[in-house]
Write a sequence for this structure.
């Protein structure tokens, strides 16, 4: 019987606790363990989980570690406890009773996939607005799996053996970008990422992007540079070309073209030391016998 660990990162999410954790508790999957990694909530999130879902194990970080680093804590624990699969679920997401079991069924049939996601809906009939874009760029194969280069980490089933081999989330990313980098790393290692088009999950986030302020534009710039630095690590020549194109040709999200070149150099001078300091933190250390 496969051992499955579900991991939810919580942060001031009391409005979502019931939908999220009730859906995990009610999942029709055996040998299922649920971890809540709390990033320093100051509302009633922890009290609600403890009172209503006592079987959920809580790890309190005492601070906001960000999405990737907090998930890494949970994934390391799951791997240490011999998990076969790790299921990541956002606190503002929930699943149907058979979502996890069906994803595991497809994962067992198709060992070439590192990550499988269900269809991510906002409500019963409407796809999540960003997920719709990821899905539309994919290619449907004959087994009902849509092959994609990226799908957001709101609802992921991950093969634990691949985490051990290819690493966890890169900890240079605090919030956003960590799932892109991990997908990029897997693709470069010839692994597959898929969306199963007959399985449903729900992601109840706001269904539009806000106009970014200057701080958010700089943050997105840092993410784009870090993604290219990660590419350099795997394929140096192509990665350097991608990074140069980004810096010189104003290629990027939001309004990066407004940045003076001196500002771009300032941002990259921040990103390179950050990347180097954290470049090995995602590696799952193996015990040598």
């Amino acid at each position: 019987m496969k051992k499955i660990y579900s991991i939810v990162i919580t942060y001031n999410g009391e409005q979502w606790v019931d939908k999220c954790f009730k859906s995990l508790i009610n999942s029709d999957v055996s040998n299922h363990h649920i971890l809540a990694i709390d990033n320093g909530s100051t509302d009633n999130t922890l009290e609600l989980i403890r009172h209503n879902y006592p079987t959920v194990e809580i790890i309190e970080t005492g601070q906001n570690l960000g999405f990737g680093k907090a998930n890494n804590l949970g994934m390391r624990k799951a791997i240490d406890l011999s998990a076969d699969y790790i299921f990541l679920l956002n606190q503002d997401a929930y699943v149907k009773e058979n979502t996890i079991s069906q994803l595991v069924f497809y994962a067992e049939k198709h060992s070439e996939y590192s990550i499988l996601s269900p269809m991510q809906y906002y409500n019963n009939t409407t796809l999540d607005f960003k997920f719709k874009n990821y899905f539309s760029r994919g290619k449907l194969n004959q087994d009902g799996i849509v092959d994609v280069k990226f799908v957001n980490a709101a609802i992921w089933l991950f093969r634990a053996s691949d985490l051990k081999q290819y690493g966890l989330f890169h900890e240079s990313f605090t919030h956003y970008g960590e799932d892109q980098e991990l997908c990029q790393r897997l693709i470069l290692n010839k692994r597959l990422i898929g969306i199963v088009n007959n399985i449903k999950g729900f992601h109840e986030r706001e269904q539009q992007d806000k106009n970014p302020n200057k701080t958010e534009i700089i943050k997105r710039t840092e993410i784009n540079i870090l993604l290219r630095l990660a590419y350099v690590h795997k394929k140096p020549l192509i990665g350097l070309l991608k990074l140069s194109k980004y810096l010189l040709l104003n290629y990027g999200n939001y309004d990066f073209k407004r940045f003076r070149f001196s500002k771009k150099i300032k941002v990259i001078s921040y990103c390179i030391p950050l990347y180097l300091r954290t470049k090995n933190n995602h590696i799952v250390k193996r015990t040598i016998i």
About this structure: Strands lie at 4-10, 32-38, 57-60, 85-89, 93-95, 113-121, 139-140, 145-148, 155-159, 192-203.
